[in-house]
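Thread title: Can someone regenerate the structure for this chain?

I was given the following input by a collaborator and told the matching structure tokens would be attached. They weren't. Posting the sequence so someone can regenerate them.
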Amino acid sequence: MDNLLAARFTMGLSLAFHIIFACIGMTMPFLMVVSHWMYLKRKDETYLRLTKTWSKGVAIFFAIGAVSGTALSFELGLLWPGFMKHAGAIIGMPFSWEGTAFFIEAICLGLFLYGWNKLNPYVHWAAGLMVGVSGVLSGVFVITANAWMNSPAGFDWVNGQAINIDPWKAMFNDAWISQSSHMIIGAFEATAFAVAGLHAILLLKRKNNLLHKRAMIIALAIGSVAAVLQPLSGDFSAKDVAKRQPIKLAAMEGQFETEKGAGLTIGGIPNEEKRITEYGIKIPKALSFLAYGNFEAEVKGLNDFPKEEWPPVATTHIAFQIMVASGTFLAAAGILFWILWLKKKEWLLHRKFLILAAVSAPLGFIALEAGWMVTEVGRQPWIIYKILTTAESVTPVPGQVFHLLIFIISYLILSFVAVWLMRRQIKALDENITEEQLKTAE
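Best answer:
Regenerated them for you:
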């Protein structure tokens, strides 16, 4: 394995690992404060117990996310010095703001965890809310930096150097709204469905557990709204990609030929040698409409671009299909939840619905991982789109395979710790349930 490939694998592994904890860190505090608010209004001890349980999960995932995020920040300098040489002065501002948001998040989390019976109840609740708000802001600031890599702005590129730098224009580039909205909604969707699925599994063991039912309802209420909104944000994001990165759109859709009235391919496997996408189902003119709002609009194919600028087409296309399929399933599950909530609430505890919720648990994170593959792999061979290639940015220092192995081992250890701690919390929760708390929910 050469230096470039090893560095890309290391960075990809780190991003894939960290994104899970980053998304949980953005979403779980909001589940926690909803439960806490219900306790403050109803004085129901079940909500208090749920709030404290979820707050422990927030603390665990925050700590692991901080470790993996720190590793990522070091990797930017160690693996990609060519990128940091040029990008640091241009896009450094959102990273500094992200650090500020992170510290506010840490302070407010400490206040919430140790503020029980010490702070005014509503001040205490507000501290929990700020954990979520600062977590979302932290995510937005990081995403704006990634959006800049896809839509460079705020500088002039002259003779291989950036001049006339404007950090504000760089931060608020053309892609930041579409990418950040799609990512934040996806984080709420993935985390909420994962939490709902976990409690659904526990309900399959103890159907009359009021705490797990209320936890599942809160999580599904938030996750289902996000799941319905996500296709809208995805459409907005896809239209933005069509305008700024037509080659990425072509790879996402497996579109080799430039066409007017281009069809949308569902499934299929791109064959780069034959320059066709095989085994897919074609919906006539749908791609032109989805990309440009016009059934007859021209969609550029990969053949219109130099072969050396193609991203890995099969990887990009298949990842995109996985993302769309997972998101569509969750949107349907979210709509079903609201239908049952409004018409047949008792069916929410039916075994079939609980199994559906359990099956949905990993799909949001699968969609997130696939979506990041589309974003990052689909931009290749560029690290800064049309400005700087990934090969030009990688460290010349050998031995990146060794670093990759070190990070694999480290993330395996962190994963084991996370699973062990969460299993311990779930076991303690079930062991301490009283008969009164096992009453059937009204």
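Residues 3-438 form one domain.
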